[in-house]
Amino acid sequence: MYGEKMPAADDRPTIKVAAVSWPGVEMEPVATPPGGGGKPARSRRARLLLAGGIVAAVLAGGVGLGAYAYAGDVPRGTTVLGTELGGRSKAEAAQALRAELERRADTLNTPLAVTVGGNKAELKPSDVGLAIDVEATVAAAAEADAHAVSRLVGSRSVEPVVTVDQAKLGAALRKVMGAQGREMTMPAIIWTGTTPKPVYPKPALTIDTDGAAAVVKAGWLAAEPVTVPLVEKWPATTREEVDRIIAELARPAVAAPVTLTTDGGSVTVPPAAIARSLRFSADDAGTLTPKVDVKRLRTALGDRLTKLEVEPQDAGLTISGGKPKVLPSKAGRQVDAAALGPALLAVLPKTEGRTVTAELKPAAPELTEAELAKLGIKERVSTFTTHFTGGLSSPRSQNIVRAAKDVDGALVKPGETFSLNGHTGERGYDQGYKDAPTIVGGKLVPGVGGGVSQFTTTLFNASYYAGLEDVEHKPHSFYFSRYPAVIESTIYWPQLDFKFRNNTPYGVLIDTSYTSSSITVSIWSTKIYDSVKTEYGPRRNITQPKTVYLTPGPSCIAAAGAVGFAQDAYRVIKKDGKVFKREKFSWRYDAEPRFICAPKPGDD
């Protein structure tokens, strides 16, 4: 209508704002109402201001909630051992956790009751390295849930990270286990002449160290007694696999000779030489692996190879006039051993085509005079003698001397481990050993190589008094007065071995000598200790022998019997005028029965 004053035109577009909801707040939709009916509508500006204010409040509230939830490195509501660590920095959380551990010190240091098999004992937590790793525990607690609301309203309890020294724990648990356990019998194939004989595997009865560590950690935290079961641990090679190797390799290997050809001529390798050189060794897991030992093959072939090759000679040492004298090295010309072993192993299962071609190559000695001089072998550092009866005509004495000759002049370089079984190999009839009494199944019976335990004990003591590291040895079941108690060792091919490690910076020379009634082993090297002595604890748990009547016959060996007892021996090593090391050796001897080769009185 002309003449009337019209309202100013509003050319802004009409805006529809969707409802914004928040817990506890209701908002009406904001829209331009049709017509003008109904209640007076709020102005669009007021409605927009109200919505904008609520959004701003929500945003501001969100920032505040996030700041609250994410305060500190550790999420709120996080506890460890009942102590609230949430909302703290890692440093503050660590401090709080350490304070809690101080409050629990008496409980955490209380000896832990353990049962291993049927034996019970208590372990001091500090002796096996049981502890709570504070830093690792706080780091675990700081692993936050990414959702802010979870951090705000959630709660969680984090288990502390427990550490343990598995080596110390294993040793402690094995001590508790005691005689309940048993060693694993490794699979093997041994030769009697050209006949392969199986040694079947048997499981160890021992402790699962990883599993034991888990239950000990849990028991320590809960302050509850722990039971550690004994488990069987089997070698990797089974009885069936041993039989298969015998059928498919060992027996065919010695069924016929092998022809070895070179550019210098040919030689026949007879079955006996094959048996001497074909070895079956098990690794620590009990995996049985065949290998042709070319050094043994050369020895078995003897003069057959001398027309084809010249053996190199290592520099060596001999004792002359009470001093070590160097024997010079010499170069040679030999069949390539690295190629010959696998090539020979490949044809041994065959019935035809048993021919191997080998190449003759220049052969340098493994040890030259210059390398020998660097080993620093200049003086005798220990010597030990044991005595035997029967003179050198006795089969037992002959076995002792045979082993001594095999080992005489052996060099052990720094860091190397000497194995008596590994050095002599099988001690059978073919190697010059005789039948003599040996302990099998708790009684004396004739066995090839009987008496070698006396040489083993002599060598063990020589290495012991040289301060060398004991790696493996096992004392006899019965005590024999010709040996020092506890610090002595038996041996049995292939299950029982004697090993020592040269843990010095100098080489070690083993020198052996004998008389008609004694065997002596001396260790030559460079002295690094003032003295090595043995201190004995008292004998305890003494048991008396029983009388056992055996069926008379050639295999029956009478014995006077001996008491059984337990005893500790301490190797005390002094250096620079002070005790450098004190090592404990312990053993329990069974009472040796009084064996009588006669019917039991009163028996018909």
From TrEMBL:
Entry's transmembrane regions: 48-71
InterPro entries from the UniProt entry: Glycopeptide_resist_protein (IPR052913), Vancomycin_resist_VanW (IPR007391), YoaR-like_PG-bd (IPR022029)
Source organism of the structure: Micromonospora tulbaghiae
Protein name as it appears in the record: VanW family protein
Alphabetical keyword list: Membrane, Transmembrane, Transmembrane helix
Domain YoaR-like putative peptidoglycan binding residue range list: 247-356
